[in-house]
Design a protein that fits this description.
Helix content is 16%, strand content 41%. The longest helix is centred in the first third of the chain and has 18 residues. A hairpin with a 6-residue loop joins strand 12 and strand 13. With 241 residues, it is of the alpha+beta class. The strands form three sheets. A six-stranded antiparallel β-sheet has the order 2-1-4-11-6-9, with no helix packed on it. The chain is globular, with a radius of gyration of 22 Å.
Length: 241
C-alpha cells in the first residue's frame, strides 16, 4: 500500500511539472500559508504557478505565503531569497515530521448539508506520513537539498514596520539550485494605512484539559484515571489555572 501511494504521488508530481513546462528541471509553485503542503502525498490542487505573488498586511503585522520547489530528479543547494524591500521580507525553510500512528486521533471536519445550520460535524482518520510542521529558522538562508519526487516548501514572511508608509512595495522572489536556471517572480507587498495593536485586547487562557501538563510530567496513567473519576476533579484540577 505504501509503495502504491508513493507511485501515485510520483505520477501526480510528474504530471504537475510537465503541465507547467518543466518535466525534468526545477519547478516552482506557490500556495497560501494556511495550506498543508505535504512533501509526499502532495495535494497538487493546492499549488499554482509562482507568478505575480502578493501579500497584504497592516503595520506591525506578519503575513506569509509559501513557495514550493520540486524536480523529478531532485535538486541540490536550493536557496530562496526575497529582494528589493525596505523592510523585512524573509524566506524561511519548512521542516517535516513523520506521523506514523494517528489511528486513535480522528480529525473533525464539517460537510455542507440541508440542515438549518448548514453543516454537520463528522470525523475521519488522519492519514499517516510526512507533514509540514516546524519552521527551521535556525537554518537561516542555508541551501537545502530536495529528494527526487519530493516537494520542499519555504515560507516568505513579511513584517511591516509600525511606521511604514501605506502603499504597495514591489520586489521579487529568487530561487536558485545547482545546475538549474534561476527562477524569479515579482512579489508585491501591500501595506495598509492602519496598524494592529501591540497586545491583544482580549486576554485569553487556552487549555484543552486541566491534567495535560501534570500527566506529561509526573502522573501515571492510573493516577490520571483516578482523578478523572473523582466527582470533584474538574474543580480541583482547574484551581491552579
Amino acid at each position: 500500500e505504501e509503495r502504491a501511494a508513493r507511485e501515485r504521488h510520483r505520477k501526480a508530481h510528474a504530471a504537475y511539472c510537465a503541465a507547467h513546462g518543466r518535466p525534468r528541471g526545477m519547478t516552482v509553485a506557490t500556495a497560501s500559508s494556511m495550506d498543508q503542503v505535504r512533501p509526499r502525498d502532495t495535494d497538487f490542487a493546492k499549488l499554482r504557478p509562482a507568478a505575480d505573488l502578493k501579500l497584504r498586511l497592516a503595520r506591525g503585522e506578519y503575513e506569509s505565503l509559501q513557495i514550493a520547489v520540486m524536480a523529478a530528479d531532485g535538486l541540490k543547494g536550493v536557496r530562496v531569497e526575497a529582494e528589493g524591500f525596505p523592510f523585512a521580507v524573509k524566506p524561511r525553510i519548512v521542516g517535516y515530521t513523520n506521523a506514523k500512528d494517528l489511528a486513535r486521533y480522528p480529525q473533525a471536519y464539517c460537510e455542507k448539508s440541508d440542515t438549518p445550520c448548514g453543516y454537520v460535524r463528522k470525523t475521519r482518520p488522519t492519514p499517516t506520513g510526512w507533514y509540514a510542521d516546524p519552521v527551521m529558522d535556525f537554518m537561516g538562508t542555508r541551501p537545502v537539498d530536495v529528494a527526487p519526487g519530493d516537494v520542499q516548501s519555504f515560507l516568505i514572511t513579511a513584517k511591516a514596520p509600525r511606521d511604514a508608509a501605506a502603499g504597495t512595495y514591489a520586489g521579487k522572489v529568487r530561487v536558485t539550485a545547482e545546475g538549474e536556471a534561476p527562477f524569479e517572480a515579482a512579489l508585491a507587498v501591500r501595506v495598509y494605512g492602519f496598524e494592529v495593536p501591540k497586545v491583544s485586547e482580549l486576554p485569553l487562557l487556552v487549555s484543552f484539559t486541566p491534567y495535560v501538563q501534570p500527566l506529561s510530567l509526573s502522573w501515571t496513567e492510573e493516577q490520571a484515571e483516578a482523578r478523572r473519576k473523582d466527582p470533584e476533579a474538574p474543580v480541583n484540577l482547574w484551581k491552579r489555572h
